What we know:
Blueprint: H1 3-16, E1 20-21, H2 27-31, H3 67-72, H4 80-85, E2 90-95, H5 105-121, E3 126-128, H6 132-141, E4 144-151, H7 162-168, E5 171-175, H8 200-212, E6 215-216, H9 223-232, E7 238-242, H10 271-279, E8 283-286, H11 294-308, E9 313-315, H12 336-344, H13 349-367
Parallel strand pairs: 1-2, 2-4, 3-4, 4-5, 5-6, 7-8, 8-9
Helix pairs in contact: 1-12, 11-12
Amino acid sequence: MSISTTEAHAAELHRQAIVIDGHSDILVPVTDNKMKLADRVEVPDPATWKPPMGMFSSTEEQFNFPAHAGYFGPMAQYDVPRFLEGGVTAQVCTIYIEDEYLDGSLKRGLQMALQLHRASEHDDRFDVITSIEDIHRVKRAGACGGILSLEGCEALGSEVDFLDIYHKLGLRMASLTHCRRNVFADGPQGNDIQTGGLTQRGKLAIKRMNQLGVVVDLVHINDVGMWEILELTTSPVVLSHSSHTNFPATDPERLSPLGMPRPQLVLPRDREKLKALAANGGVLGIIWFSKEDLHDVVSDIETAIEVMGPDHVGLGSDLYGLELAPKGLEDIAKVPAITRALVARGHSDDVVLKVLGGNYLRVFDQVWRR
């Protein structure tokens, strides 16, 4: 195909696709009243922006974000206008409890869930997605929606039963941990901290997620916990945002240059984990955060397809800060560039549609209760 024919075909394929992205932290600035999800948000250029007087560092000791990213986070990278511009059908919107809110984690989690519902109530272009039917409905309407997720179960306090409450509020995906240890399991933590696996509460949480129809997310769990979850779960799982090719193969638990634990998956080195995820029927969401450019992200997608097969690869953008976004994929509105690149590289329509969202849709259809 000529360049113009390829681009036209990619554009039409993207219009047909159900596009699902596996991770965003956009509920953090929304809940902090820094933005409204309905508005297209712009932020100052990181190259010229100066931090406000008295700005203090985050209490998140695990992270060392540039000042601009630490202040604005994923603002100007996710919002309803950008979802619509990028043809995104469903965006996973996670509840993540920052260190300063741990003493009131249940309250903070409920506030974040509330903000997702308020965004839906005040914007007929956006809905809270809780079923497969919702996904198809917003697609037909040319609208978009958010899927509520937990990135770490701190928002439950210490009560497994509170999964039921969050499920009634729309929770459809959850990981036990972020990077730190909690009452459910150990995260990867880094800095040579010795970590274990799941606690008894963590095992009960996995069982209850399976019963409720909440997709278990393996993200930010350590190796021991990952294998324990794969053994315990009775449903397909996801790893919503992970995998890198640009980290050394040695010392995977040590800190990366940004001060964060190295990814739990490094392509294509961690074939055993990748094949286990595929054998479970699960999906790996390819991360965009901290990648160099569009080419790097698409290359990771292709490597994952090579190792796992095309039925187990999806999108997991996790954009957080313009300085840390890949060139060509600075915000979620740029997702059609992935479609164009995959088509140009000769991938079939079926494979492209699976990566864009079809694989997540299959897992949701298998796990979510009707």
